[in-house]
Amino acid sequence: MGPDRVAIRFVPAARPNRPATGKTDLMTRHAILTAEAHRDLRILDRSDAMLGDAQMCCVTVPTEFRAVQAEYPILFRMNPERDGFHAFAMFGFENGENLYLSDRGWDARYRPLAMTIQPFLIGGNPNDDRVKQVHVDLDSPRIATGDDGIRVFDDHGRATPYLDRIAEQLGDLDQGYRDAAGFFAAIRRYDLLEPFSLEVTLDDGSTNRLVGFHIIDEDRLAALDGAAVAELHAAGHLEAIYMAIASLSQWGALIARRNRRMHRD
Question: What is the pTM assigned to this prediction?
Answer without folding.
Answer: 0.86
